[in-house]
Amino acid sequence: QVQLVESGGGLVQAGGSLRLSCAVSGRTFTRYTMGWFRRAPGKEREFVAAIRSGGSKYYADSVKGRFTISGDKVKNTVYLQMNSLKPEETAVYYCGLGDVASYNYWGQGTQVTVSS
Description:
Radius of gyration: 13 Å
Number of strands: 11
Helix content: under 10%
Distance between the termini: 40 Å
Largest sheet: 7 strands, mixed
């Protein structure tokens, strides 16, 4: 059974940092594409960052230079380091596991609130 469990969300002031974690069980994440997405209140889910099985990393333009996706093979965990956070980035952040075409598994999400 595949499980993704996010953690690390919380309340932070604008300009602050958080590191989100996505612990994966039931699959070895390095064999798949792992992505981070977010959904703000009243908005559609949007792509944030992804790391593919070959190690290539992709970012939404809005987070380039501020967010970094990485993974720990030993812990089978993917991280999202978020720096210089903005109030408009308040959202529930989700991690997903899948392939190039789609994400098949999702975590329950972790709330990130950025105060101004």
